[in-house]
């Protein structure tokens, strides 16, 4: 008996281990840390997700309130939506085992375990279809290392869906055949909690899968309808059990990502020529260029593809089933070519980068049909089937080879490898027989080799962030933050002129200013842009602060690189802030200088109610900053930014037509430059306005030979700090064109009247609140209003804030289209603020009811509690 159990479990163990060993071997070969200086942090993994994993650790290891609210999400905001999309995977618990300084290693281990779990889940599915031995290992590995899995290795939170899909499908099978719904319900619930976005795609596929399996099993009508009812009830109860998370997340989506939902469908638009998809059946069919826009990643290996072809010419399978499979296969093909269906799969929003995110279900579908076909031919495929498969594979290979210029991500070698493996697969399938165990093992080995070659060839085309860049920057920033917080405390924001990730503040755990998230509310980038800061649909970056914005946003501390910093420390600079010399230097580390801003306002202060009437205008950062100060102080809009003279532009190696300069460079040693000069008459801060068109590295800029960083992505006019070190010295500003032409129409030089500005800021500073307590999602403060005023905060307005003044609930209001403000009467007041995500308790109520219904169902169902 024990030997029989071991024989049954051994293929499942290998289905888990083989993908892990292949990928671990690859990571070791390419020197992923700790075996070298590389990492698995490619694109968003290094720029976004790893910081969330650090935030995950901080929350579970001491700050549970951060599950609901994050003060270190840009200027502060709802956190539950971030958890629902990025952080609810059970695999994330692995990060708790590793110290914070080894977080990238934790991610590597987590990646390997998800590969292994996908192989195990698929292997179990295959075994339940009455396959044994090498089939379990081969199909498990083919699925774990399919095109979608490897291409989306960097989107680690999506991989859970691929792990859960075979398990949910098994639960669906059990529901149909044995009227036991709880396996499907349980795994579907876990998928919904793990990542609602991918679970949505799972549900769309599951509906079709259920219908297909129902057709295959051919139940009597009464049993079929019972299965339909149980299927629907299971899905609804799974959603109900997850309502505590899904309901508040739905509200946050309506405030953020949901605002970009497409309302007009282009019914005649085809996104891709089906011929372009043919290249995706070859190993290594991926590259960096495929990330922002490309075809669906549907590689499943030669056996998987040949088996899929054979499925439709296997007479042992009923023609009704094959017809239904053909129709759904056509539907999936349309889904990766026709825009309306692509839109449906993605929740009515076209994805930004990583197209066809649902194509993991196609990989599963192809392998499932392939398995069904091959299991129907235990003595090998027929001559007719061999000729059909050979013809199709030959046509596929010749088409891709002759059109290889259309598949830039494919090499001739990759085409040759897949072609060779396809020939070997056809030979093995034709020789397969019930007593030829060696051939069965050979097929499993071939599937493993095929899948492994795809993983290697795909990942070889991608680059990553080095371990040293991540580690040295993170530890240097951590040291700088600790130094600064020792002087200014932990309840004020910190700005910096360096940036590795726009989620640095979540990585280290401090009140910052930046954010990169798919759950970003549109009001935030709009507000940042109106102040002249870098922003986009899903990010904000405080790159070009002024004395005014530093003060208004409670940026009490600043970090900037030291001139003597070791060059071995990765420290990318995003801004020049020579005006930091006006701030108080309070310390330094080996890498960073720490400054305290003597002009910074508190997170909250009393001000004039005129701020409710203040409107900000697009593309006018200087006017908007003046308007805000005027509104807060209850005065007319002051003239604080004065236009200063710039010399006429001098163009070298280019032609000028109006404000547009075009390159005429003849040799690679020549550069097209545009030069301006000015001389400062005072020690005030000077700001150079550039246009929104200067984004995407259109130009680079130097001031007297010193580089002035321009952040690489923004969509509004920005203010670059060009304050001279001393007045009376001629300043030379040289723009170098990095592209063919640039429009310099928006170039202006402003001088900030520092004396008038500080007078107004000090008036507001005298009205700062006194913060008495700050929790992970709460604040308590004492304020003193001199008249009927408003407690103005630099905390973003959100519906989840519950405010009390002197113990009485008060309705908070929105100021400047973004900030939270609280009307108060004259006198001293005790203010408390607590954040709870909207609809959280309603969701908890729904989940409790769903749990009670599940318990009742289990009790009443004959195959539930009473099952033996």
From TrEMBL:
Keywords: Membrane, Transmembrane, Transmembrane helix. It comes from Lacticaseibacillus suilingensis. Pfam families: YfhO (PF09586). InterPro entries: Uncharacterised_YfhO (IPR018580). The chain crosses the membrane at residues 12-33, 105-126, 132-151, 196-215, 227-247, 296-313, 325-341, 353-371, 383-402, 408-431, 839-861. This is YfhO family protein.
């Amino acid at each position: 008996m024990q030997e029989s159990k071991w024989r049954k479990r051994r293929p499942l163990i290998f289905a888990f281990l083989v993908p892990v060993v292949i990928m671990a071997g690859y990571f070791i070969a390419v020197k992923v840390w700790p075996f070298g200086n590389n990492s698995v942090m490619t694109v968003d993994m290094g720029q976004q997700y790893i910081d969330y994993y650090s935030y995950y650790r901080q929350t579970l290891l001491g700050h549970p309130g951060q599950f609901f609210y994050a003060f270190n999400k840009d200027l502060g905001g709802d956190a539950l939506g971030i958890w629902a999309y990025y952080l609810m995977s059970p695999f994330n618990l692995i990060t708790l085992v590793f110290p914070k300084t080894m977080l990238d290693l934790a991610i590597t281990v987590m990646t390997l375990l998800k590969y292994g779990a996908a192989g195990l889940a698929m292997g179990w599915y295959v075994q339940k279809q009455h396959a044994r031995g090498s089939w379990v290992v081969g199909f498990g590995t083919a699925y774990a290392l399919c095109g979608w899995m490897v291409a989306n290795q960097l989107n680690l939170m999506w991989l859970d869906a691929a792990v859960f899909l075979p398990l949910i499908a098994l639960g669906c099978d059990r529901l149909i055949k044995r009227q036991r719904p709880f396996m499907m319900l349980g795994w579907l619930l876990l998928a919904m909690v793990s990542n609602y976005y991918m679970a949505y795609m799972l549900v769309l596929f599951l509906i079709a899968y259920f219908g297909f399996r129902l057709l295959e099993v051919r139940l009597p009508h009464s049993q079929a309808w019972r299965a339909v009812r149980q299927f629907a009830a299971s899905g609804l109860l799974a959603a109900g059990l997850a309502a505590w998370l899904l309901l508040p997340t739905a509200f946050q989506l309506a405030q953020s990502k949901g605002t970009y939902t497409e309302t007009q469908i282009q019914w005649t638009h085809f996104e891709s020529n089906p011929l372009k998809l043919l290249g995706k059946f070859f190993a290594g069919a991926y590259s960096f260029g495929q990330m922002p826009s490309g075809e669906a990643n549907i590689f499943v290996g030669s056996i998987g593809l040949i088996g899929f072809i054979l499925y439709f010419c296997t007479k042992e399978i009923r023609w009704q089933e094959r017809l239904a499979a053909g129709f759904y296969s056509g539907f999936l093909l349309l889904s990766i070519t026709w825009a309306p269906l692509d839109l449906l799969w993605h929740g009515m929003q076209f994805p930004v980068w990583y197209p066809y995110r649902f194509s993991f279900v196609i990989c599963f579908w192809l392998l499932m049909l392939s398995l069904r076909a091959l299991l129907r031919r235990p003595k090998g495929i027929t001559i007719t089937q061999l000729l059909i498969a050979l013809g199709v594979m030959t046509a596929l290979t010749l088409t891709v080879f002759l059109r290889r210029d259309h598949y830039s991500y494919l090499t001739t070698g990759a085409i040759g490898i897949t072609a060779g493996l396809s020939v070997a697969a056809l030979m093995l399938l034709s020789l397969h027989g019930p007593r030829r165990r060696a051939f069965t093992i050979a097929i499993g080995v071939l599937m493993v080799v095929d899948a492994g070659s795809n993983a290697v060839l795909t990942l070889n085309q991608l680059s990553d962030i080095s371990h040293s860049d991540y580690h040295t920057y993170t530890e240097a920033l951590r040291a700088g933050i600790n130094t600064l917080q020792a002087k200014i405390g932990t309840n004020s924001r910190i700005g910096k002129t360096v940036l590795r990730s726009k989620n640095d503040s979540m990585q280290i755990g401090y009140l910052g200013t930046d954010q990169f998230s798919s759950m970003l509310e549109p009001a935030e980038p709009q507000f940042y842009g109106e102040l002249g800061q870098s922003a986009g649909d899903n990010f904000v970056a405080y790159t070009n602060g002024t004395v005014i914005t530093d003060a208004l946003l409670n940026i009490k501390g600043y970090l900037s690189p030291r001139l003597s910093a070791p060059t071995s420390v990765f420290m990318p600079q995003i801004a020049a802030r020579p005006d930091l010399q006006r701030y108080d230097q309070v310390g330094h580390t080996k890498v960073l200088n720490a400054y305290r801003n003597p002009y910074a306002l508190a997170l909250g202060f009393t001000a004039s109610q005129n701020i409710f009437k203040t409107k900000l205008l697009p593309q006018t950062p200087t006017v908007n900053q003046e308007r805000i100060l005027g509104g807060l102080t209850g005065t007319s809009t002051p003239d604080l930014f004065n236009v200063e003279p710039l010399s006429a532009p001098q163009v070298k190696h280019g032609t000028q037509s109006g404000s547009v300069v075009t390159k005429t460079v003849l040799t690679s040693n020549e550069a097209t430059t545009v030069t301006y000069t000015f001389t400062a008459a005072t020690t005030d801060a000077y700001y150079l306005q550039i246009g929104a068109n200067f984004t995407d590295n259109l130009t680079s800029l130097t001031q007297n030979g010193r580089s002035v960083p321009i952040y690489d992505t923004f969509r509004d006019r920005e203010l670059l700090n060009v304050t001279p070190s001393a007045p009376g010295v001629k300043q030379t500003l040289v723009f170098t064109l990095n592209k063919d032409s640039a429009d310099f129409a928006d170039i202006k030089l402003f001088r900030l009247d520092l004396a008038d500005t500080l007078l107004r800021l000090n008036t507001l500073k005298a009205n700062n609140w006194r913060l008495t307590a700050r929790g992970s999602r709460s604040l308590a403060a004492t304020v003193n209003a001199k008249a009927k005023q408003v407690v103005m905060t630099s905390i973003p307005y959100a519906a989840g804030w519950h405010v009390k003044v002197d113990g009485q609930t008060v309705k908070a209001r929105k100021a400047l289209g973004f900030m939270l403000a609280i009307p108060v009467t004259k006198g001293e007041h005790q203010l408390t603020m607590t954040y709870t995500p909207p609809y959280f308790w309603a969701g908890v109520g729904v989940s409790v009811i769903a749990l009670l219904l599940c318990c009742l169902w289990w009790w009443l169902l004959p195959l539930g509690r009473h099952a033996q």
